[in-house]
Write a structure and sequence with these properties.
CATH architecture of the largest domain: 3-Layer(aba) Sandwich
Helix content: 40-55%
Largest sheet: 5 strands, mixed
Order of helices and strands: HHHEEHEHEHEHEHE
Number of strands: 7
Distance between the termini: 54 Å
Strand content: 5-15%
CATH class of the largest domain: Alpha Beta
Shape: elongated
């Protein structure tokens, strides 16, 4: 395989990038921005080596704890459970939530080999057992898998008398938080209901 073809193929690993888009990006970098390409390659390499998961919420960070978990102004008694780091970004951009997060990195899907352990639900269960969590907001996607995951977490919390709520209307059925506008997310969080 020629080097140019390898470069095109490498870009195709990105979501939404097909062969034509990958060719355009490759040609742009080779023709017009070789310095940008070097900076991009160095940054990707550095990020892959240094970014890991927060020891508390499992979000991406280059430190032991992410900046949200380190912030003493955040409400540690309210945990918003989301499927992906993109969901954290979407909620943070709405500026309507002042608690902390727990990032599942997916949803329950036995066919894909994603069970409770792979989602860190043992870690969440241990956090619940400590007794400092007062409310869990379930902000999993409204897909079938997201609903099953939310129900599983609700059952984890039930014996501990923790308030469990689900984000409210505004988030479309079968929708993903990463694609919902900030106003809708803000409204859904403000109008959450008991689950």
């Amino acid at each position: 395989m020629a080097m140019f073809d390898e470069l095109v193929e490498a870009f195709c690993c990105l979501p939404g990038v097909g062969k034509k888009s990958a060719q355009r990006m490759s040609l742009h970098l080779l023709e017009r921005d070789r310095e940008g390409a070097k900076r991009l390659a160095d940054t990707i390499d550095k990020a892959m080596r240094k970014i890991g998961h927060c020891a508390s919420c499992r979000n991406f960070t280059e430190h032991e704890l992410c900046h949200i978990c380190q912030n003493p102004k955040r409400d540690a008694g309210t945990i918003c459970v989301v499927e992906t780091p993109a969901d954290v970004l979407a909620i943070e951009n709405s500026a309507s939530f002042s608690g902390r997060y727990f990032v599942l990195m997916g949803h329950l899907s036995p066919l894909d080999g994603l069970g409770p352990k792979e989602l860190g639900l043992d870690i969440l269960s241990a956090k619940i057992a400590i007794g400092k969590i007062l409310e869990i907001i379930l902000a999993t996607n409204t897909t079938i898998e997201g609903e099953v995951t939310a129900e599983y977490i609700r059952e984890l919390a039930r014996p501990h008398a923790i308030k469990v709520s689900r984000i409210a209307y505004g988030v479309p059925l079968d929708g993903e938080l990463g694609y919902v506008d900030q106003g809708t997310i803000s409204h859904a969080l403000a109008d959450r209901k008991a689950y």
